[in-house]
Specification:
The chain is mostly beta strands. 0% of the residues lie in helices and 57% in strands. It has no helices and nine strands. The chain has strands spanning 2-4, 16-19, 25-32, 38-44, 48-55, 60-68, 74-82, 88-95, 102-108. The strands form three sheets. It has a four-stranded antiparallel beta sheet, with no helix packed on it. Strands 7-8-9 form a three-stranded antiparallel beta sheet, with no helix packed on it. The protein has a two-stranded antiparallel ribbon with strand order 1-2. β5 (48-55) and β6 form a beta hairpin. It is globular. The mean pLDDT is 78.
Length: 110
């Protein structure tokens, strides 16, 4: 399961399940926009790359598939950040299982 907890300055919140998955989550990245919305990217052991988006106004997590490498590429070095215009940038290095080549994957959101 993918869990979320936060520190309010004095104590940690109770863990909240964001997503149940039968695969283990192996790599993660996190970014927070200027409205305190949280963006969490992750890779599970099946090679699925996903993103969960937390809307701070209604306290709800929304799933979003941003990349789906069904060939089982090994993705690592996940990065997620916002630029000065609040555009979201996501990158990962993924190894093609057929060739062994490393590929840089990049997505820019708006």
């Amino acid at each position: 399961a993918l869990m979320y907890t936060y520190f309010d300055g004095s104590v940690w919140s109770s863990p909240q399940m964001i997503k149940y998955t039968s695969s283990s989550t192996q790599r993660t990245g996190i970014a927070i926009d200027s409205s305190d919305n949280i963006y969490l990217i992750y890779v599970d052991s099946s090679g699925y790359v996903g993103m969960e988006y937390y809307n701070s106004a209604n306290n709800y997590w929304y799933p979003e598939q941003i990349m789906d490498f069904t060939l089982g590429e090994d993705c690592q070095y996940l990065s997620i950040d916002f630029d000065q215009n609040e555009d979201l940038h996501i990158s990962a290095v993924c190894t093609d299982p057929n060739t062994g080549d490393d590929n840089l994957m990049y997505i820019k959101g708006e």
